[in-house]
Input
Amino acid sequence: MSDFPAAASGRPLRILAAMSGGVDSAVAAARAAEAGHEVTGVHLALSANPQSFRTGARGCCTLEDSRDARRAADVIGIPFYVWDLADRFREDVVDDFVAEYAAGRTPNPCLRCNEKIKFAALLDRALALGFDAVCTGHYARIVDGPGGRELHRAVDAAKDQSYVLGVLDAEQLAHAFFPLGDTSKELIREEAERRDLAVARKPDSHDICFIADGDTQGFLARRLGTAAGDIVDMDGTKVGEHDGAYGFTVGQRKGLRLGRPAPDGKPRYVLDISPVDNRVTVGPAEALDVVALTAIRPRWCGPAPTGPGEYTAQLRAHGAEVPVTAEAVGGELRVRLAEPARGIAPGQAVVLYQGTRVVGSATIATTTAASAPVGT
Amino acid sequence: MLPEAIHAMTAHLGSTGNASSLHAAGRRARRVVEESRETLARALGARPGEIVLTGGGTESDNLAVKGLYWARRDGDPARVRVLCSPVEHHAVLDAVHWLGDHEGAEVEFLPVDAVGRVHPEALRRAIEGGSGPQTVALVTVMWANNEIGTLQPVAELAAVAHEFGIPIHSDAVQALGQVPVSFADSGLDAMTVTGHKIGGPYGVGALVLARTFTPAPLLHGGGQERDVRSGTLDVPAAAGFAEAARIAVERQPEHAKAMAVLRDRLVAAVRAAVPDAVLNGDPDAGGRLAANAHFSFPGCEGDALLMLLDARGIECSTGSACSAGVPQPSHVLLATGADADTARASLRFSLGHTSTPDDVAALAEAIGPVVERARGARIASARR
Output
């Protein structure tokens, strides 16, 4: 527990452990309690009608998850409450998710939830109620560096979740604990077994928690309707039809249902989604190569860097790192990629790293293709 | 549990014997059940034959509400109106809603005043209104409210219902042991009581049932309890329940007096610490349970108050929570005309025989800072 000071080293902290009902947050809470801190478990009710969401219990938002979280808190021996953040979640995460798709972008709701719910609505309420910090089961590390607390990647690269935490600023990080960052998922499950936590073998959550059946297209269609439109190639020639432009993501190949093969016989990919004229533009893989991008709403995990700097960037969840040069100009982050990268969708976050340290993040607004400029 | 009730219950845990069996062990068990039934009847102002033992208050409420509805509708298909107070416990409220959703019941909520009380004249208007008295299946109004402690004029309501030949049920779970409860004097047709609220065991209760109306059963089988309720009787639980009821009723006057003293102190202490706290329910001591004090703390959220008090060793409760544990604005306060914010800002303090002046002093000390902190938290979580 490199980032988790034991209470012996000072006064015990009053820690609010967010417990989803899964194995990770349960072990995180147990570790915090074992370190001698005063821990209180809280399950966030994020749906106004919990039973209407997923019933398979693989993540958050279900009745069963609330019970699993409560049972874990009992076993750990900490008080447990359910906090109703359904209204805030709907406004800040679900409505935003739908609005972003409606604008032709591809949002990441987990980032948004961390920024607006777990480390804003929840953290603010916790601090006001006298807690010192919020602890979660995210796989990331907090390291005390020369300039304050730093956010780093988890040691388990496959489980690392620093990308979805890249939106946290220094103030939020000052009150965050991630007790699992130094351990692999496999060992966390073993630890949960040792601690008699019944959630030890509970499956991981993968999908978006508020989309019960994993059918994002259907979810969006119910909210945005289905307006048929054209699929065009880079010259503007119609090559097919779609029944709702918002359902597509830049870089997508499957589900285009293009009748005729392209002249070169190669597969085509979504290059651009334009909600204004309800058009989806497709083209060859090479046209997806992006060499530069601009991103908005930059958030820094420490002091904001000045001038251009060399970083590596992660451009989507579970994506590879690419070397970049980035500079914040006004309210914008300008990023130049050292080598072209594919499948970069506006709406996703660009997270900048130096080594394992997260420097900051911003939301991708426009991209510059290697071949011809594409994007809005 | 009361030590006497534990003793009465454990005395029978070691004996086997099905009270329905004809052999010696069965007869022994039957004797315990019947003696318990007689004890309960004496305590409740009822005849032994009117005591139907059940698995607790929820089952009794469901048996009364659904069973009477089915029986009445079977007698005349036009009788589908269910008149219900809006401040009922969920065991009645949800049963009534279910009848509306699945059994063709027309559910009508009786108007209540600002303290949550149903007035006999309001009941009369409801019965005579709509499609008239001949279409009413039953009336159900609780004896004492579990959240804000308001007592209902049960006998007067029963008199009105009976003018029209309509059965009336009352959930008296909160009333027994707190105020005088006599089934015979009330004129009710059915009355719910339960063991664990009076220092008896969990999982046992009774529906006191006059011979006037017979509900259709919920549980079919051996017909052990008057053919209205089937299932092998829990002999030790019946003995523990009966002993608890006997003692609760015997000690009721003295208990109510002691609780009223503590309650008045508690109310004064809360008002001194938080001048804008609002006491909910009937301000007249004669119209409410002595062991209950229910407040709204403007600008706070009940669940924040609960958590902060819990951390200081003071246990209280908010209205109710859904099955996922999400605190809900109290339907009782909403029914009395409170807005959702006020309903969420509320907290119930219940006193019991273990409560002491020291407990009240601890609350008096904690409540001011706790309310201040909860107000800060509400402002903080509204910010973005």
Chain A has three domains: 7-201, 226-286, 289-369. Chain A has a mean pLDDT of 88.
